[in-house]
Amino acid sequence: MSMNTDNNNKTIEKYRKNMSLLPYFTHDFVLSLISDGKASRTVHEYTKDLLNFFEYVRTLEQFENTDMDKASAKDVLEAISVVDLERYKLYLADYNPDRIKSSAASISRKLSTVRTMYRYFFNTEAISSDISSKVSNPKLQEKEISVLHLNEVDAIYEAIDTPPSSRKQLLSWEKTHLRDKAIITLFFGTGLRVSELVSIDLKDINYMTAEIKVQRKGDIICTVNFNEDVEETIKDYIENDRPALLKGEKSDALFISTAHQRITTRAVEQLIKKYALIAGIGANVTPHELRRTYGNTLYKETGDIYLTAAALNHKNIQTTISHYVPKNDEKLKEASRRTTLTRKIQK
Fold it and tell me: I want to staple 241 with a disulfide (CB 3.0 to 4.6 A). Which of 76, 102, 178, 319 is the partner?
């Protein structure tokens, strides 16, 4: 998995660049995340959130003449009020109250980073109090689970398999048709995340055991199982489209772009949107929606929420329940109908 090392190094470069733009006192906090064993991607996300926060802090009147690089945690964090932190939510929503609800999850995550930073400096006695705990998250709106129906899945496959009428589009389709079909089938057959899919190398696939080695969240290496459909489409792509896409270049990557190198997450997102649009579903279908479709189908077929959570690599079972089990789940309805406690005991 050579790409994983390259990606990790690039991520480290990114968060180091972010650190150079942050007030100097925050570096101790970021280094504590690294020493606690946080994945480089997680550290990068923390530094991005901190850049947002201190961009806002610099707009506050009390810091108009403050040199942030020379200031201490006490100088800055103890000069910020609870009202300032409450207004930060509006700042994140571009001062548009209507956007707070639509951006609730993102705002909550950024507030969580701020709280973690405050807690660190309070625990290390750099500040005398932690006001961040007084600031509540915006209320999350419950959304319906967005998954594709079987007819929509069929429509996507039909869109992939149907040659375009335009000659120019046909030439492009002939180069990538089998690759795109293998990508879609891998999503529907394994429930991988897009970052996991694009990082797969040829050597990560074991056809004897029907397993693929992937690097999951937290840089954990796991294996996922695949079925005959996945195997068939991958082999078909490797034997036909892949050599042509490489065009003489060398790569360990399973999926190759038209630029003769490892395909990017952005390119995968775009090809899914393209086929969803052709299929008449709309252009808003994402790789995660294909993952949710897999998870929802797996739960329906097995009735086993723990197996579904394991297949999707969820550490928290509640994530699986809230995102992959429909509110009107028939299995839950049937269990309720079969409950016998309300029946009179027959003598």
Answer: 178
